[in-house]
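Input record, target 12 of the design panel.
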């Protein structure tokens, strides 16, 4: 398969879409991102990597971080985590409060904000690490240093009123053990992690290999990796899961920084980045790039 040629063609095909999406302006530093930028990387099971555009430019991964947080929460709590958060698509915006109230404090899934706050709460152990989710991402990268952008984290922390509302609503239903402010702060630091498309393809390798990092160390069990892929497919791109299954056909997790990490179990990870978002909050050009990729390679879970 001429992956390099396919990526070159995709980078050309998506040019007309660059600049058309809207950047995430509710997190001030992200509001200044250039929607015309694009990067893409693919990492195969054998470790070979192919890139196009700004594949090595570190960007704010935002909700892509929820995948790693979930893996850690499942590792710590096993099936017990599913008493606190569901596994169903929400059909609502990622930061909606409505369902949480009507469903008595149990978030639909760990990929929406409410669910991610529960999994963050679940990994914040008394006396434990300050940022266990970031440490887990570093484990998935075989120890490659992982840092977050202070400016992005501080700016979001100062304006994250909806997440504060969600955290306190969860607390009111008894589904948050830690202080809501501690959960919110840890959530914004992990969201502000900066990684490139190539980095994320490597960090997500455990989802392709059934739990093994690029260097072969185990960070989760094969059945847990399978389950995380399933949740990415049904809930990883918020209220666009159906269209992603139809157009892309891969488990994927997006972030409002414009990144999308997608997985073909047993074959590859592919990551795209373009800050312009579509109305559902997913990268406009990135989504088209992924659709072109599965079309041109003929490879999807379907
Ligand atoms: N930190 C962002 C928030 O909590 C992440 C949103 C996203 O990337 O979907 O709103």
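The sequence produced for target 12 reads:
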């Amino acid at each position: 398969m001429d992956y390099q040629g396919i990526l070159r063609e995709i980078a050309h095909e998506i040019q007309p879409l660059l600049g058309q999406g809207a950047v995430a302006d509710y997190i001030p530093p992200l509001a200044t991102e250039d929607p015309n930028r694009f990067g893409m990387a693919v990492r195969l099971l054998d470790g070979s990597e192919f890139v196009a555009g700004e594949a090595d430019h570190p960007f704010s991964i935002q909700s892509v971080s929820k995948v790693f947080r979930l893996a850690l929460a499942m590792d710590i709590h096993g099936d017990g985590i599913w008493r606190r958060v569901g596994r169903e698509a929400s059909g609502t915006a990622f930061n909606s409060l409505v369902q949480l109230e009507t469903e008595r404090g149990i978030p639909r899934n760990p990929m929406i904000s409410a669910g991610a706050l529960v999994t963050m709460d679940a990994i914040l152990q008394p006396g434990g690490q300050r940022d266990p989710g970031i440490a887990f991402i570093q484990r998935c990268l075989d120890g490659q240093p992982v840092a977050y952008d202070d400016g992005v984290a501080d700016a979001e922390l100062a304006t994250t009123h909806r997440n504060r509302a969600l955290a306190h609503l969860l607390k009111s239903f008894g589904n948050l053990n830690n202080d809501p402010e501690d959960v919110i702060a840890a959530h914004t630091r992990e969201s502000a992690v900066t990684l490139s498309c190539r980095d994320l393809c490597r960090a997500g390798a455990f989802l392709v290999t059934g739990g093994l990092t690029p260097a072969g160390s185990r960070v989760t069990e094969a059945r847990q990796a399978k389950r995380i892929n399933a949740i990415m497919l049904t809930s990883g791109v918020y209220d666009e899961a159906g269209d992603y299954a139809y157009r892309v056909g891969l488990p994927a997790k997006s972030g409002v920084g414009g990144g999308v990490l997608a997985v073909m179990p047993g074959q590859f990870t592919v990551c795209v980045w373009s800050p312009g978002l579509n109305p559902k909050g997913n990268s406009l050009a990135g989504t088209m790039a992924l659709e072109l990729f599965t079309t041109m390679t003929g490879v999807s879970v379907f």
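The chain has two domains: 3-61+194-297, 63-191.
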